Amino acid sequence: MAKLLAIALKSFYLDNEVKTTSSKPFEVDEHHFNELKHNGLVELAPEQATEADAKADAEAKEKEEADAKAAAEAKEKEEADAKAAAAAAKKAKA
Q1: Where is the composition biased (Low complexity) (predicted)?
Q2: Which of 2, 81, 75, 76 has the alpha carbon at shortest distance from 34?
Q3: Among 16, 36, 48, 92, whose CB has the most other CB atoms within 10 angstroms?
Q4: What residues make up the domain containing 68?
């Protein structure tokens, strides 16, 4: 299971140790981190939060690029359909 670097928001016991707001960042596994976060006791350490934010930003950028590509393809298809309709109308008049 993944290890995360956490900082304490409130004082609490972790195993046999007291973690306080002045404690250094400490490693916990992801499951324990989620439990502690749910109880409002921890948050990601700043350097780990930066990595998570960067990953989320990269995923969002990839999605935007994919959406833009799909929109461009849809526009090309629409233009091709319009040309085909115009050609069919011109042929029908003749």
Answers
A1: 83-94
A2: 2
A3: 36
A4: 3-93
